[in-house]
Design brief:
binds magnesium ion; 31% helix; globular; binds threonylcarbamoyladenylate; ten-stranded mixed beta sheet; DHBP synthase; 2 domains; alpha/beta; 10 helices
Length: 321
Amino acid sequence: MTSGEFVSNCTADALSSAAQLLKAGGLVTLPTETVYGLGADATNQAAVSRIYKVKGRPADHPLIVHIYSMQSLGEWADEIPSYAISLARDFWPGPMTLVLKRSMLAEDFVTGGQPTVGLRVPDHVVALALLSAFEKIGGKGIAAPSANRFGHVSPTTAQAVQEELGEYLDSTDLILDGGPSSVGVESTIIDCTSGAPRILRPGAITGEMIETSTGLKVSTTVSDIRVSGSLENHYSPAATVSLNRIPESGEGFIALSEEQTPNGVIRLASPNSVEEFARLMYSALRDADAKGVKSVVVIEPIGDGLALAIRDRLMRASKGR
Ligand code: TXA
Ligand code: MG
């Protein structure tokens, strides 16, 4: 049995009802440009604890708080360095999360007990309209992890959300359909609590873009901050994922379109660019499971930037569930 009311027509009325539901402590899954999120009122402990239950996620893993604009930055964070303001100005709304020293508003139940908070302004019309409607009725921010069960592949469509979480949602919770996510991999997470920015999770906002924006060298010191997406096994389908070898008959295959498909191999995606690779990758992995394919071979894209984020996720996916 699946639950969670599916809303494909995100009108102003539908979004204002969704905002009301959030205010009342309900869960709303929302589209973003990176992946779909499982949202709750970030100031409501009971609502946030339902996120953990629905995801099956350990309670000490922090959540990203989504805000309507950088104007709310000061409500959620203290001691914001000027380079973080540059980043917000240059890349929000967009696929970037800033980790900052938390304010009183960011309580333990949303930060996993850490002294910092992750903040992001997503670049998706439906997410922004929902955040705006929520703000109008006094909402401060929407806590939202990717809308998948813990350790699984992130959803990039509302249909994938329903398959992934439908059975764990209540009938009054909502699944908003905003079409396929345009980026396809999760936001770049940047630690802004020291003298220079540090990338905790690579994404579409690259080290080079961060250096250009801030004029600072991006630090790559290994972090002691807990990022659940940095656990070794994560982003995994039920199928086993192996990297950079020739696939055999009966195996699934994901690679740039220039790679040929050997005989008997099930081609799951043939993206023409690194951007398209990111956009298609998670749905192709889900497709493998839907087709009952037990083993998937992926030829990773080379290069920096987004290709780096893709390889980061694939390396973890290949460690299995
Ligand atoms: O693109 C995204 O970031 C998506 C969309 C929905 O916004 N969200 C997402 O959330 O990927 P999640 O929870 O699946 O991954 C967020 C990561 C987690 O690994 C979490 O540990 C880390 O962000 N994180 C959140 N707050 C943090 C903090 N204060 N310090 C360090 N890491 C933090
Ligand atoms: Mg996630």
